[in-house]
Specification:
0% strand; single chain; mainly alpha; 72% helix; 100 residues
Length: 100
């Protein structure tokens, strides 16, 4: 779908919103969320977060970028927000994940 492609293209953009995705697809936010729930089993915002976390996991394992750089590359301007989201998703901090 167009929304998934836009998420992939702009995954590092912290200003990307559900509203912007819905507008690009010419549907309401409610309709876009319904579609994502039906197809992916989660709302758009959760899908966006999961894609960011997948990329973060890969970058932490396969690059020498700092945790702060990884946070920026996946759309988090604040390293603390990124670390908190990463911990919520995987149960370990980004630096612990990298060491594993």
């Amino acid at each position: 779908s167009e929304a998934v492609q836009m998420i992939q293209d702009r995954i590092g953009d912290p200003s990307l919103t559900v509203r912007e995705l819905a507008d690009a697809c010419e549907v309401s936010s409610v309709t876009l969320n319904r579609y994502f729930r039906k197809v992916y089993g989660m709302p758009v915002s959760a899908f966006l977060s999961s894609q960011r976390m997948k990329l973060a996991k890969m970058l932490l394992l396969n690059s020498s970028n700092s945790v702060a750089d990884v946070a920026k590359k996946v759309g988090y301007g604040d390293i603390y927000a990124f670390s908190h989201a990463f911990f919520r998703c995987f149960g370990v901090s980004p630096s612990t994940w990298r060491k594993r």
